[in-house]
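Support request from a user on the community tier.

User writes: "When I paste my structure tokens into the form, the page sometimes reloads and wipes my input. The last time it worked, I copied everything first. Here is what I submitted, just in case something in the input itself triggers the reload:"
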């Protein structure tokens, strides 16, 4: 698994969340950090700010479909290592 650098700054009411220097604050709804001294490092869990997922063109003969999400959530996924499908902007 590729290591990523998580940076939290700001507070006390508002924080900036950055992954490898890329601000993903607008794409994150919730973030928690769990530290277990018996493990190699902290575990970070995040909930992306996706309010609805729209799936179109899904049919019995057409196995392809389109998933739409906010640009901020897409940017957060890319910062975490996701590669968008070919042809995606």
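"...and here is what came back when it finally went through:"
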């Amino acid at each position: 698994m590729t290591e990523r650098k998580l940076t939290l700054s700001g507070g006390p009411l508002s924080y900036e969340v950055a992954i490898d220097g890329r601000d993903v604050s607008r794409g994150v709804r919730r973030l928690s950090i769990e530290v277990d001294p018996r493990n190699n490092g902290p575990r970070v869990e995040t909930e992306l700010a996706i309010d609805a997922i729209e799936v179109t063109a899904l049919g019995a003969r057409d196995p392809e479909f389109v998933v739409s999400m906010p640009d901020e959530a897409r940017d957060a996924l890319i910062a975490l290592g996701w590669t968008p499908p070919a042809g995606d902007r």
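Agent notes: The reload is a front-end session timeout and is unrelated to the input. Strands lie at 6-10, 15-19, 22-23, 28-34, 43-48, 54-56, 66-68. The chain has one domain: 6-79. Escalated to web team.
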